[in-house]
Amino acid sequence: MVFRSTLSLLFAALLWAGPLGMPSNAQPFSVILEGGTVYDGTGAAPRTADVGLRGDRVAAIGDLSAAATEQRIDVTGLAVAPGFIDIHSHATSPSWARSDIQQRPLAESYLRQGVTTAMGGQDGSSPLPIGGYLTALEEAGAAINIGLFVGHGTVRGHVMGAIDRAPTDAELERMQALVRQAMEDGAFGLSSGLEYTPGLYADTDELIDLARVTAPFDGLYISHIRDEGGRLLESVDEVIQVAEGAGVAGQVTHHKVVGPDRWGNSTASLQRIEQARARGVDVTSDVYPYAASSTGLTILFPSWSREGGSGALEDRLNDPDTRSRIRGAIARHIEAERGGDPSTIVLSRCAWNGALDGKSLADVLAERGQPVTVEAAAELAIDLQAQGGCRVVLHSMAEEDVRRIMQHSTSMIASDGGIPAPGVGAPHPRSYGTFARVLGYHVREEGVLSMREAVHKMTGLPARRLALPDRGVLQEGAIADVTVFDPATIIDHATFADPHQFASGVKHVFVAGEAVLHEGDVTGARPGHVLRRTFTEH
Predict the structure, then answer these.
(1) Of the four listed, 127, 423, 477, 502, which is most buried by Cβ atoms within 10 Å?
(2) Euclidean distance between CA atoms 494 and 393, whole angstroms
(3) What is the DSSP letter of 479?
(4) Which tens digit of pLDDT belongs to each residue from 157-189?
């Protein structure tokens, strides 16, 4: 009798269950990634498990071998991780029409690295107003998610122009109003570029006054610091001072040490961050995995010569005495910041003469039959700027500092790159290779980080920094931004000599549960979200 009752209950259960043993009313998964090694983004040890996606969410992680699904993908031997978050990106620009993400919305250079989210509005330069830009992006669609910071330099330029003085009370109030509007529109905080015009003309008090506006929104102050060479420590201290004074979190972005005489100073700059954190100041940093930077040619020019913008600089260059002063200042910069070596300054993009792209100042001087000296390089820089200017790649850093910063517990991985037009110019390879380089070269080949540490620095750590609780982790209920890569083969191929090469080893990428890269092929889907900072006003 008991035996018959047990059989009856079992038979009833089978009738209630679906063919795979799941409840008949349970929705099937849209995708199951089967048998992969899951790195959940928290820094925890990896585990072998299936990951089930349903719609735009991660629905389950575990043994899903008996579950119903619309698609099952065997990822045995592959790593399954949250989509990578680039906390410092130039995929956006102040002009919607010129933005990389508008011109190349499939973002292939990012997808092939496993990146699903890029944060723009960096180095003090952002769209204004941010709300209109984000709406335009939402309407156009993109393969990846995009968020924005509001740029201090853009705000200052809008109110004051490129002038070297402190703002009046009325001007400060106008700047504060613009920052507040940007935060209400969804900005994630305030960015500054304190080596660039007009941001370099601001003092610390101005930065505190503007960053304080973001505090009720839990904003982040992210800064291209004032000096990455001789005044590195004072410049890191300034980020700490702004964060502490404004009551916000602070970030030293693309943390680096410039100039051979300063190499090794990352030990002291990281100590500054540790000391600030010990007294309760929430400050962190990010880093890219290359010993070279990239920016505009005017970085070589003294700050006073750039006041008033490009027209004013051109007027100064046309005056012989002022030109001589500028030339002397550039020569001193090359000596101090570039080790006195013109070959370390490489022209990456001269829109007015593509034949110069990829050549160093030393190369150009030699081709012209001129002596390769610091003084001749300074005059050449002036000549190039007068003809329209160029982007440059600067080989002025040490691998030892890059690795030390990368290993620090508070450091994240970021590219400082964008979505380049394939074949155009000779851009920094970071746009094509950053995340794959860390995983392939620094993790697998060099052992600088463990795989779980590296994934954490690309996912959970920046997600927490940006207050994105449902991204950057693989857990039930999280947004299904997922990257699947081969830890044995993932690698960057872009080099300084040949930068237009996609990374390899990323097999699948999902954004909000939709495949944007499948079996290594771009699908053409544009499920990316426009991310707006959500907040509870204090």
Answers:
(1) 127
(2) 14
(3) B
(4) 999 999 999 999 999 999 999 999 999 999 999
Distance CA 538, CA 214 (A): 11
Residue carrying structure tokens 């109030």:
173
Of residues 48, 49, 53, the one with CA closest to residue 510: 53
Mean pLDDT of 424-453: 98
Query: How does strand 189-193 pair with strand 220-224?
Result: parallel
In angstroms, the CA 116 to CA 534 distance is 19
Q: What's the whole-model pTM score?
A: 0.93
SS3 312: helix
Burial class (CB in 10 A: 0-12, 13-18, 19+), 321: exposed
Given pLDDT bands bounded at 50, 70 and 90, which one contains residue 26? confident
Domains assigned to the chain = 14-81+472-488+505-526 (2.30.40.10), 84-291+398-470 (3.20.20.140), 296-394 (no CATH)
Read off the amino acid at residue 449: L
Report the residue count for the chain. Answer: 538
Model pLDDT for residues 487-535, shown as the tens digit of each residue? 999 999 999 999 999 999 999 999 999 999 999 999 999 999 999 997 6
Measuring CA to CA, how many Å separate 348 from each of 195, 364, 497, 500? Answer: 19, 13, 10, 12
Amino acid making up residue 260? P
- Of 58, 33, 66, the C-alpha closest to 48 is 33
Look up residue 504 and give its amino acid: S
Give the end-to-end CA distance of the chain in Å, rounded to a whole number.
67
Helix (H, G, I), strand (E, B) or coil at 5: helix
CB 123 within 8 Å of CB 450: no
CB 214 within 8 A of CB 246: yes
The Cα–Cα gap between 109 and 500 comes to 9
DSSP 369-428: T----HHHHHHHHHHHHHTT--EEEE----HHHHHHHHHSTTEEE------PPTTSS---
The per-residue pLDDT for range 253-273, each reduced to its tens digit, is 999 999 999 999 999 999 999
| 283, containing H or E segment | strand 283-287
